[in-house]
Amino acid sequence: SSGDASQRLAHVFASGIEARLAGTGSQLYAAKCAIRISAAEKLQAYQVYLSACPFKKIGMSFANKTIFDSALASSNPTIHIVDFGIAYGFQWPIFIQHLSEVSDGPRKLRITGIEYPQPGFRPAERLQETGRRLANYCERFNVQFEYNSIASQNWETVKIEDLKLQRN
Fold first, then answer.
1. Coiled coil: which residue ranges (predicted)?
2. Model pTM?
3. Which of helix, strand or coil describes residue 163?
4. 34: burial class by Cβ within 10 Å (0-12, 13-18, 19+)?
5. How far is 63 from 68, CA to CA, in rounded Å?
6. Helix axes of 92-100 and 125-140: crossing angle, nearest 10 degrees
7. Does residue 83 have a pLDDT over 90?
8. Which of 87, 92, 112, 127 has its CA 20 to 30 A from that of 42?
């Protein structure tokens, strides 16, 4: 945790080379994977990443604007977003906030979050946690919300029935 960015990077790189040469790389990897990082810590790191490299943020802004504009142009009362690689759903809070500010727009948001399963006994735990977090955010901004999570090792095998599409 001490030193400037270059020194910290050099330390991590040297530790990796040392583990590789000593043949302990897989144990080091397993030990690092066992350390769980909370969603709050991930969000904090993600915010730092977005401030240092805004390209991802710009892409999300354009995607959100495109979805938002097409939703407003439609007469459907529900927006259904299918998000392949939803991870923590960090893209959607600003979208939800904008949706709450439109009085004559869609009245319900449905998100189907698709992600690779996590290792362990609860492969869809992070996906479900993302859904709960987005539901709390929607409740705070008075947006009706429905969430469907799909944990799939191969996204090409996701069937249309898995998306639980509805007429509206």
1. none
2. 0.73
3. helix
4. exposed
5. 8
6. 30
7. yes
8. 112
Single-letter amino acid code for the residue at 63: A
- Say which amino acid occupies 52: A
Residue 1, pLDDT > 70, answer no
Which DSSP category does 121 fall into?
S
Single-letter code of the amino acid located at 58: I
**Following DSSP, what letter does each residue of 46-115 receive, concatenated?**
HHHHHHH-THHHHHHHHHHHHHHHHHHHS--SEEEEEEET-TT-TTHHHHHHHHHT-SSS-SEEEEEEEE
* Residue with tokens 């007429």, as numbered in its chain: 167
The residues spanned by each domain of the chain are 55-163
Distance CA 138, CA 142 (A): 6
